[in-house]
C-alpha cells in the first residue's frame, strides 16, 4: 500500500507544483456559475449549513445579499424570507468557488475568474471590499450596499475590460512568487501582491473606455485596499487544489473550510466527502473596544490558502504581521512554519521564502502526518464579531480541529488499509 | 476528597512529571497528589493508588492528568498554579535550548538529513514502533526505553541486521560511538579499544578502568540486557562484533556481559575468535582464562577486563612497531641516566635474551649481547668534565641520535628522571633528540623509542606534562622501567602480526565519524549531547495520534 499511496501523493504534489492559474476576467457570479440559473440561490462558506444554524456574520451577509439583489426591501423581510426557506443555499466549494468569512455570494455579485492553464479548470471568488463595515464580516447597512453596487457597476466592468486587453490575463504564480519575497503570506498580508496587481493592471486601466472619474475611483480603491489580492489568492489556491483533487487518490488535504459552526476537510483520495468537526474560535489581537468575548467562531473558505501551503503555513514569510496575528514574533513565526513543514509532504519550489533560507512554502498536507504527529494546520484569520452587522473586530490564528483529520484517516484506512 | 484536572495537548515525559509531582506535593493542604499522562498504564497506577476519577478514566494518552487528594478545592488552585509555573518554565527552557527541536522524526531529519542514530527514550509501548520508523529511514537505533516486548526486539534487530544497521537496546543505558557519549556514558579519551556491553554499568566500569590506565576508546556499543538471551540470539552482539572488526580505528575488542544463554555465549566466543583483532571477554560468573592462541582472553572481573584490554592494546602496539622494522634491525639500545634503572634494565634484558646477568659495568656498559646494549651514562667515564646526565642530558641526547641512525637498531630505550635536582625539562630535551634522530636516519625501517619517566605527580617538572611531551614526539611511554624493557624486548622477538587489524571489509558507516543524533524522549539526553559538543536535534515527542490505538493501527496500515 505504501508505494501506491506514495505514488498517488506524488501525482497530487506534481499537480500542485505544475498548476498555472491566470486571472482572466471579472464577471457577475450568475454568468459563470450555472447553479444560479432559475432560482434564488446564495453561496456560503464552509460545509453545508442551514440559515437557522448560521452564526452572526454569515446571517448578516445573507441579509445584505437579499437587499443587494433586491429580493427583500428591508432587513425584516429578508430575515423572514430566509427563515421561511425561500432562499436556497449551496457551499461555494460545490460550484468551483470560494468566499472569505461568510462567503455569501449572490448572482449579481461580481466574481474573479481564474483559469488553471495546466488542467483547464476554473475557480471563482468574490472581490475584496476593503476594511471596516464589510459584508464578508456580516455588515449589511447602507455603506455596505453602496460599496457592493459600486463594485458591481464600476469596479467589475473596469477590471473586466482591462483584463480583456491582456492576452493571457495575469500570471498569478509569477506574481505570488514575487510577493512572497516581499513579505506577503497571502492570508493576513497581501499588501505587496495587491500593489503588484495594481501595477500590472494600471496600464490597461489607463487605456479602457471609462470616465476619468471612474478610473480614479477604481485606481484609488485598488491602491488602498491592502487585502484586495486575498480573494485573488483564494481563487488561485482553489484552482490549484481542485486540479490536485482531480487525481482522485492519495492522502493529501485538498480543501479546508469553515462555516462558523463546522470545519470541513476534503482529501485527494476520498472524492466529494467532507470530514467535519466543530470549529475552534480564533485567538488574536482585537481592535479597541473589542475582546475575545466578541469573537465569532472560525469561519470562511479562506483556509484554502493554508491548504495550498501559504497563509499561516508560510507565517515565516511575513514577519510584518506575526505580531498582529498573535504570534510572539519572528522566532514564533519560524516555529510555526517549521512545525507546519512537519505535516507536509513537500515544499513548493515556485514559492521560495527568503526569511526561511529560501525553503519553498509548505505543500501537500498529509492526513497521516497530521494524525500521527498531533499537529493540526494553523490558519491565519480575520476575526468577525459574533453578532450580525458589526463586522471585523480583530485578527488572529486558529487551529483546524483534529477530529476532521481523524475521520478522514479512518476513511482512508477503509479505502486503502489492508 | 479527590479533585482532578485534565489538561489537553501538553505532553510531558515521565521524568519531568515525577519531578513536578515531587515539587507540588509539598504544597500545604495536599494529602496526596499524582501528575501523569493519561496512558493506559498510568491509568492503572491511578486506580491502584486509589487516585482514579471518572475524568482520568476518560483521558487520552496525550492528556496531562492531575489528581489531588485534599480537604478543599482551594488547594487545587494552588496546585494548578504550581503546575502552570512548572510547565511555562519548561517551555521557556525549551525555547532557550541551543539545538534544533521538532515534533516528529521526519521533522528532525529535515534538520539533520545525515543523522546517524535515533536515541529513543519514549514510553515502552510506543518505542518499538518508533524504532521501526527510524530503521526505515536508515538510522541506527539506541533504545533507552524498556518494556519493549521480546518479539518486537527480535524483529527490530533482524530488520536492522538486514539493513546493515545496529539496534542498541531496548533497555540500553550506555553507549559511546565515535567520541559521542549517548545516555549514561563516561567521557573517555579517544583511543583504539572498542567495547561491546550487554550490561550498562559493566560497560561503564570497563570504560573507567581503561581510562585509569590512560588509554582511550574508539567506541563503546551497548546492547541492552536481553540481547544475549536465547530469544534474541545475540543479533546485535554479533553485529557489533562485526562492526568493530571492520572498523579501521578499533585495534582491540572488549566484550562485557552478564551470564548469557549458553548457546549464545558460544556464538559470541566463536565470533570473537574468528575475527582478526585481539579480544578480551568477560562473561560474569566465569573464571578468567588466558588466550589459547585464538586471540581471545577471558577476564574474571571487570577491572581485569580493563587491564587485559590495555595489555592487548600493547601487544598490538608492539606488533605495529615490529612491522616497521627491516630484517637488519635486531638490537635494543638502552641509554640510561639512572644507574639502578640501567642495572634493572640489564637484568631484565638478560632474562629476556637468555644471557646470564654478570653485574659487570665496564665503561658504564651494563649489558651487551647480540648487539643489544644497556649503558649507564651516569658512570664515571661519562661524567669526567661534564655534569651528571640527570642534570645535563646533552651527551645522552647525542647518543639517542647516533642510535637512531644505526641500521641495526630496532629500539632505543631510555629513562627520563625528574624531580628536584634534575634538569628542568628532561622529557622536552629527550623528545627533541628523538625528533632529531628521526630526521637524521637515512637507512630503512623505523626505530621505536621507549621511555620510562621516573617521577612523582607533584614534581616541579609536572609528571603528566613530561609524559605528554614524549607521547607527542611518538615515544612510547611505559608505566615502569620493567614494562619499558619488556615492551622493547617484545619488539625484537617473534609475535603474531596484529599490525593491520581491519579485516579488509568495508568499514561500517556508523563508526567512521562522530555520529549525529536525533533524540526522541528525554530532553536531558539532548542537553548532554549538546554539552558534549555533539550535533543533536531533539524531538518533543508525544504519543502518536494522541495514543489512540485504533488510529495508530490505521496509520500503520497506511504507512
UniProtKB/TrEMBL annotation, chain A:
Pfam families membership: AllG
Family matches, as InterPro entries: AllG-like (IPR009499), OXTCase_su_AllG_h-dom (IPR024033)
Protein name in UniProt: DUF1116 domain-containing protein
Species for this entry: Hohaiivirga grylli
Source taxonomy: Bacteria, Pseudomonadati, Pseudomonadota, Alphaproteobacteria, Hyphomicrobiales
TrEMBL record, chain B:
Keywords, alphabetical: Tricarboxylic acid cycle
Residue stretches making up the CoA-binding domain: 188-285
Record bears the keyword Chloroplast: no
Domain of life according to the entry: Bacteria
Residue intervals of the ATP-citrate synthase/succinyl-CoA ligase C-terminal domain: 335-488
InterPro entries: CoA-bd, SUCC_ACL_C, Succinyl-CoA_synth-like
NCBIfam families: PRK06091.1
Name under which the protein is recorded: Acyl-CoA synthetase FdrA
Species this chain originates from: Hohaiivirga grylli
Classification lineage: Bacteria, Pseudomonadati, Pseudomonadota, Alphaproteobacteria, Hyphomicrobiales
Amino acid at each position: 500500500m505504501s508505494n501506491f499511496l506514495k505514488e498517488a501523493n506524488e501525482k497530487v504534489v506534481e499537480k500542485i507544483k505544475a498548476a498555472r492559474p491566470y486571472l482572466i476576467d471579472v464577471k457577475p457570479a450568475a454568468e459563470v456559475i450555472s447553479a444560479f440559473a432559475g432560482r434564488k440561490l446564495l453561496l456560503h462558506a464552509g460545509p453545508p449549513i442551514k440559515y437557522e444554524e448560521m452564526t452572526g456574520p454569515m446571517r448578516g451577509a445573507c441579509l445584505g445579499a437579499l437587499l443587494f439583489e433586491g429580493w427583500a426591501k428591508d432587513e425584516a423581510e429578508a430575515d423572514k424570507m430566509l427563515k421561511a426557506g425561500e432562499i436556497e443555499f449551496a457551499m461555494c466549494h460545490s460550484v468551483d468557488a470560494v468566499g472569505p468569512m461568510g462567503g455569501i455570494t449572490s448572482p449579481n455579485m461580481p466574481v474573479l475568474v481564474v483559469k488553471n492553464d495546466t488542467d483547464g479548470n476554473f475557480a471563482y471568488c468574490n472581490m475584496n471590499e476593503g476594511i471596516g463595515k464589510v459584508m464578508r464580516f456580516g455588515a449589511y447597512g447602507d455603506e455596505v450596499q453602496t460599496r457592493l453596487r459600486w463594485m458591481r457597476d464600476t469596479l467589475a466592468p473596469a477590471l473586466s475590460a482591462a483584463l480583456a486587453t491582456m492576452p493571457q490575463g495575469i500570471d498569478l504564480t509569477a506574481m505570488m512568487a514575487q510577493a512572497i519575497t516581499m513579505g506577503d503570506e497571502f492570508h493576513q498580508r497581501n499588501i505587496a501582491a495587491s500593489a503588484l496587481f495594481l501595477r500590472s493592471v494600471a496600464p490597461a486601466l489607463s487605456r479602457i473606455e471609462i470616465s476619468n472619474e471612474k478610473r480614479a475611483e477604481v485606481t484609488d480603491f485598488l491602491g488602498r485596499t491592502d487585502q484586495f489580492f486575498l480573494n485573488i489568492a483564494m481563487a488561485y489556491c482553489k484552482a490549484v487544489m481542485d486540479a490536485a483533487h482531480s487525481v482522485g487518490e492519495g492522502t493529501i488535504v485538498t480543501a479546508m473550510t469553515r462555516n462558523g459552526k463546522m470545519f470541513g476537510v476534503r482529501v485527494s483520495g476520498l472524492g466529494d466527502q467532507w470530514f467535519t468537526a466543530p470549529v475552534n474560535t480564533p485567538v488574536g489581537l482585537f481592535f479597541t473596544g473589542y475582546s475575545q468575548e466578541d469573537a465569532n467562531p472560525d469561519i470562511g473558505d479562506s483556509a484554502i490558502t493554508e491548504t495550498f501551503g501559504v497563509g499561516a503555513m508560510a507565517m515565516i514569510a511575513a514577519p510584518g504581521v506575526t505580531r498582529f496575528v498573535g504570534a510572539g514574533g519572528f522566532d514564533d513565526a519560524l516555529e510555526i512554519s517549521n512545525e507546519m513543514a512537519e505535516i507536509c509532504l513537500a515544499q513548493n519550489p515556485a514559492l521560495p521564502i527568503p526569511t526561511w533560507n529560501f525553503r519553498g512554502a509548505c505543500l501537500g498536507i498529509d492526513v497521516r502526518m497530521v494524525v500521527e504527529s498531533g499537529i493540526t494546520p494553523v490558519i491565519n484569520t480575520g476575526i468577525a464579531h459574533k453578532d450580525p452587522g458589526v463586522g471585523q473586530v480583530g485578527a488572529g490564528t486558529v487551529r483546524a480541529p483534529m477530529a476532521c483529520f481523524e475521520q478522514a484517516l479512518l476513511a482512508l484506512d477503509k479505502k486503502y488499509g489492508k | 476528597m479527590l479533585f482532578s484536572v485534565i489538561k489537553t495537548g501538553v505532553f510531558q515525559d515521565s521524568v519531568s512529571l515525577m519531578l513536578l509531582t515531587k515539587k507540588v506535593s509539598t504544597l500545604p493542604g495536599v494529602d496526596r497528589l499524582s501528575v501523569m499522562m493519561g496512558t493506559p498504564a498510568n491509568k492503572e497506577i491511578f486506580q491502584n493508588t486509589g487516585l482514579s476519577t471518572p475524568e482520568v478514566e476518560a483521558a487520552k494518552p496525550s492528556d496531562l492528568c492531575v489528581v489531588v487528594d485534599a480537604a478543599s478545592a482551594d488547594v487545587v488552585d494552588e496546585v494548578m498554579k504550581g503546575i502552570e509555573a512548572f510547565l511555562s518554565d519548561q517551555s521557556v527552557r525549551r525555547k532557550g535550548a541551543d539545538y534544533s527541536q521538532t515534533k516528529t522524526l521526519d521533522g528532525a531529519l529535515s534538520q539533520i538529513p545525515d543523522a546517524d542514530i535515533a536515541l529513543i527514550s519514549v514510553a515502552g509501548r510506543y518505542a518499538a514502533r518508533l524504532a521501526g520508523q527510524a530503521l526505515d529511514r536508515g538510522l541506527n537505533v539506541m533504545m533507552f526505553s524498556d518494556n519493549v516486548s521480546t518479539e518486537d526486539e527480535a524483529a527490530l534487530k533482524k530488520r536492522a541486521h538486514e539493513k546493515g544497521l545496529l539496534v542498541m537496546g531496548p533497555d540500553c543505558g550506555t553507549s559511546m560511538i565515535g567520541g559521542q557519549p549517548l545516555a549514561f556514558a563516561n567521557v573517555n579519551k579517544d583511543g583504539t579499544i572498542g567495547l561491546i556491553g550487554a550490561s550498562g554499568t559493566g560497560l561503564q566500569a570497563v570504560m573507567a578502568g581503561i581510562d585509569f590506565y590512560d588509554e582511550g576508546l574508539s567506541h563503546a556499543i551497548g546492547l541492552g540486557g536481553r540481547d544475549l538471551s536465547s530469544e534474541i540470539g545475540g543479533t546485535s552482539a554479533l553485529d557489533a562484533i562485526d562492526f568493530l572488526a571492520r572498523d579501521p580505528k578499533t585495534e582491540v575488542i572488549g566484550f562485557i556481559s552478564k551470564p548469557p544463554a549458553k548457546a549464545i555465549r558460544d556464538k559470541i566466543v566463536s565470533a570473537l575468535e574468528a575475527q582478526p583483532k585481539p579480544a578480551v571477554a568477560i562473561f560474569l560468573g566465569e573464571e578468567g582464562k588466558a588466550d589459547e592462541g585464538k586471540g581471545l582472553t577471558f577476564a574474571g572481573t571487570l577491572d581485569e577486563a580493563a587491564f587485559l584490554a590495555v595489555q592487548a592494546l600493547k601487544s598490538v602496539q608492539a606488533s605495529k612497531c615490529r612491522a616497521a622494522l627491516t630484517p637488519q634491525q635486531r638490537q635494543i639500545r638502552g641509554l640510561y641516566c639512572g644507574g639502578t634503572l640501567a642495572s634493572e634494565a640489564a637484568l631484565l634484558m638478560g632474562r629476556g635474551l637468555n644471557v646470564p646477568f654478570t653485574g659487570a659495568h665496564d665503561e658504564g656498559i651494563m649489558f651487551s649481547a647480540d648487539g643489544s646494549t644497556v649503558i649507564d651514562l651516569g658512570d664515571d667515564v661519562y661524567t669526567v668534565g661534564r655534569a651528571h646526565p640527570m642534570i645535563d642530558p646533552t651527551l645522552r641526547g647525542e647518543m639517542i641520535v647516533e642510535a637512531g641512525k644505526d641500521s641495526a637498531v630496532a629500539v632505543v630505550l631510555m629513562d627520563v628522571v625528574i624531580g628536584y635536582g634534575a634538569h628542568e625539562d628532561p622529557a622536552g630535551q629527550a623528545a627533541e633528540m628523538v625528533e632529531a634522530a628521526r630526521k637524521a636516519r637515512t637507512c630503512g625501517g623505523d626505530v621505536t623509542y621507549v621511555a620510562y619517566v621516573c617521577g612523582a605527580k607533584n614534581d616541579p617538572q609536572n609528571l603528566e606534562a613530561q609524559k605528554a611531551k614524549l607521547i607527542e614526539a611518538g615515544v612510547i611511554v611505559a608505566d615502569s622501567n620493567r614494562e619499558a624493557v619488556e615492551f622493547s624486548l617484545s619488539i625484537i622477538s617473534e609475535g603474531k602480526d596484529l599490525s593491520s587489524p581491519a579485516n579488509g571489509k568495508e568499514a561500517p558507516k556508523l563508526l567512521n565519524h562522530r555520529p549525529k543524533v536525533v533524540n526522541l524522549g528525554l530532553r536531558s539526553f539532548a542537553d548532554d549531547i549538546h554539552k558534549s559538543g555533539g550535533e543533536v536535534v531533539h524531538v518533543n515527542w508525544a504519543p502518536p495520534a494522541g495514543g489512540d490505538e485504533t488510529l495508530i493501527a490505521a496509520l500503520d496500515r497506511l504507512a
